[in-house]
Amino acid sequence: MALLEIQNVTRRFGSMTAVDGVSLSIEAGEFFTLLGPSGCGKTTLLRMIAGFDAPDGGRIVLDGKDLTGVPPERRNVRTVFQSYALFPHMTVAANVAFPLKMANTPAAELDAKVRESLKNVQLDTLATRFPHELSGGQKQRVAIARALVTHPALMLLDEPLAALDAKLREQMQIELINLQKEVGITFVYVTHDQGEALALSHRIAVMNQGRIEQLDEPSRIYSYPKNRFVADFIGQCNILEATVRKRDGEVAELDLPGVGPARALIDAALASGARGALALRPEKVTINPSGQPKTDGDNHLSGTVTDFLYLGDVTIYRVALASGQKIEAMRANAEAGRARFFEVGDAVDVAWQVGAGHFLVD
Asked: 215 and 299 in one domain?
């Protein structure tokens, strides 16, 4: 049996349905992420798990117990918020000890439990400091220590790293991964940051308009998106309208309007005439000066660079074809033999392997 089961849960606010018949199961020890844009329902779902909000329909079951009507303080669940929610007049140790005192933990056990929890987040030397004396990352770790001190069955994290700068956020991501492995507690994590979700999670539920669009492992969501929304929301992606013209086994010839014919791998159940789109990640598209021997891939096109985005380790180029259709290609800036960057107006060839794209059925 799964540790947490969400069974056909719905939540409405007036005429708006924030969570629309969501069902999912989360296993013990899993790092599970609810990912989606603002307003997709992920935080509302998290609040219902925590008990801060009640569903209009469906059930939430934790470790075999129906949580309907169970108040937040009686659920074996703790929540970490983006805002930290620390008591400013209390020391770090006192903040962490607070939930233990609320649970009537014997005084003789308090200090040891607080020290253990602070040691888990590497803050045992800062026990006597106050929140205003801490950095943003340290405050977040205090909030995590406070949530962990009672050893809950489930820990909920609502955009906990959103307020941190990029470098600190990356450091905290690594610390969260290691901490979750060490303590073995199930994490349910809410974020709108696709890169964060891909880096942290065992599984991801991509949400949109109150529903789950796809639930899978990060690598499968990225490489095999279920539909256009997932392909477009997760990372960068060329989404090219496509029709299957003919097929030879698993290889099909596609007609890409504004692009031309292309070869791709498709599902065995798809027949000629099937319509959809080819999802093609920019890192799967090679880009070279025009006129070089065509040895990079099975699909080749010529065009002109119209824009580029330098990102340090890579550069993303936008290439306009003769029809005006644009395709994005990514190139590593440390690539062997790289002589120069392409500039706007350069004539280039782009190419991709037959297995690089993923066909999305309409």
From this structure: no
Are the beta carbons of 148 and 185 closer than 8 angstroms?
yes
Entry pTM: 0.90
User: Cβ of 109: how many Cβ atoms within 10 Å?
Assistant: 10
With tokens 């997932």, the residue in question is 230
- How many CA atoms are closer than 13 Å to the CA of 91, on its beta-carbon side? 12
Report d(CA 51, CA 58) in Å as an integer.
Answer: 14
Please determine, for residue 338, whether its predicted confidence score (pLDDT) is greater than 60.
Answer: no
| Tens digits of residue pLDDT in 90-107 | 999 999 999 888 888 888
pLDDT score at 14: 94
* 260 vs 162 pLDDT, higher one: 260
DSSP 3-state of 104 = coil
Last residue of a domain, one of 231, 251, 274: 231
CATH number at residue 24: 3.40.50.300
Strands (E) across the chain are located at: 4-13, 16-26, 31-35, 57-62, 65-66, 77-81, 154-158, 186-191, 203-208, 211-216, 238-248, 251-256, 260-265, 275-280, 286-289, 299-310, 314-321, 326-332, 347-352, 358-361
